[in-house]
Write a structure and sequence with these properties.
The protein has 384 residues and is of the alpha+beta class. It contains 11 helices and 13 strands. It has a 6-stranded mixed β-sheet. Strands 10-11-9-12 form a 4-stranded antiparallel β-sheet.
Length: 384
């Protein structure tokens, strides 16, 4: 994003503010390489922050008012002392972040700003989390910002204000991202470490079905409730169990009358946690070729056991894995639409793009979105 572009949008949206005082913050979206629907089960995930980002250019004000304008000219705002009234439309995530920061005794300040996003909406690349993380940087003035506090506040905003019972993975990746690396995150302890990616040979490509999902109206919250039900059942005989992170396949086998749907949900989460750790082993061991099988297992599990894939996602994966030079492909994100993540040899990128564009449009009647992305550093302020 060009700084001049942001400044020009700010000047057009708020001609009376002092544009020489503009501040600029950025927060990346994310792609999850493997570890889907494990984060809210205290499990393991392997996301990477990506170079599709949210940018907020803003000027501080002395009042208690937030006013924001989007790239398409949409305008909205709210008073910080009446944040609970800002429930609806795109502004609610900004308001939710102001509410969550105040709940953590991090008092936000008023501003006039423009929000520009490079992240396709509804693609499952965490545009919402990026908005929230960037908002935290904009609202908190010059006080030291701890990435963990921001990630926790963003999750609290989603759970307590927006109403999506999501885990911490998305804002964590946006806040903590590392260049050319994924992050192995333990979603219980929140310990993490960077895992280098084979960027010299393979590119990360997100392919968008352009069949967007809405988590608030999907079965996302239902999946979480199903997992919690399994935990309660297993804990009756295994009191040490606090989440599906603690459950083993042997424990599940001992529950004779477990509902088949619940068994499938739990089976996915238990095996997916194992796949994450195997993926880390092969990456750190310099054997990325083994990721292909893990991606395939993960996608099949998400389709058949967790039932969050879609015909469009399945088609994109089918096209990808049949194209020479593709190491692996799977759906990424919550599902019910959105994107696949693909690891593609640099030398095969042209062939991959051509195959996906031609075959996906032939199968669905609409073109896919194809985004070749780098793994980038986490959110922060940009010098202007």
């Amino acid at each position: 994003m060009e700084i001049a572009t942001v400044r020009g949008r700010l000047r057009a949206a708020f001609p009376k503010v002092d544009h020489r005082a503009m501040r600029l913050v950025r927060a990346p979206g994310r792609v999850n390489l493997i570890g889907e629907h494990t984060d809210y089960n205290d499990g393991f995930v392997l996301p990477a922050a990506i170079g599709l980002e949210v940018w907020i250019g803003f000027v501080r004000t002395d009042d208690r008012r937030i006013e924001m304008v989007l790239g398409d000219g949409s305008r909205d705002g709210f008073d910080l002392d009446g944040v609970m009234t800002a429930r609806g439309g795109w502004i609610h995530r900004i308001a939710g972040m102001a509410w969550a920061l105040a709940e953590q005794d991090l008092e936000p300040r008023g501003l006039r700003g423009v929000l520009l996003s490079e992240i396709p909406i509804g693609a499952g690349l965490s545009s919402s989390a990026a908005v929230e993380v960037a908002t935290a940087w904009a609202l908190l003035d010059d006080r030291p910002l701890e990435p963990m506090a921001i990630a926790r506040a963003a999750q609290r905003a989603e759970n307590g204000f927006v109403g999506v019972q999501s885990g911490i993975m998305d804002p964590f990746a946006s806040a903590f991202g590392r260049r050319d690396s994924a992050l192995l995150v333990d979603c219980r302890s929140l310990e993490y470490r960077p895992v280098p990616l084979p960027v010299d040979r393979y590119a990360i490509v997100a392919c968008d079905t352009r069949a967007p999902h809405r988590l608030e109206s999907s079965e996302y919250n239902a999946r979480r409730a199903q997992c919690e039900t399994v935990v309660a059942i297993v804990a009756e005989s295994q009191p040490e169990v606090r989440s599906l992170r603690d459950v083993t396949l042997e424990m599940l086998a001992e529950v004779d009358d477990l509902d088949p749907v619940l068994r499938r949900r739990a089976d996915h989460v238990v095996r997916e946690n194992e796949r994450v750790m195997r993926a880390v082993d092969v990456l750190e061991g310099g054997q990325p070729e083994a990721l292909g099988g893990l991606f395939a297992e993960s996608h099949a599990s998400l389709r058949e056991l967790y039932e969050v894939s879609s015909p469009e996602l399945d088609l994109l994966v089918e096209i990808a894995v049949s194209t020479p030079g593709v190491l692996g492909a799977r759906m990424t994100g919550a599902g019910f639409g959105g994107c696949t993540v693909n690891l593609v040899e640099h030398a095969s990128m042209g062939r991959f793009r051509s195959s996906v564009e031609r075959r996906y449009e032939a199968g669905t009647g609409r073109p896919p979105g194809i985004y070749v992305v780098d793994a980038v550093a986490g959110a922060g302020e940009v010098s202007v």
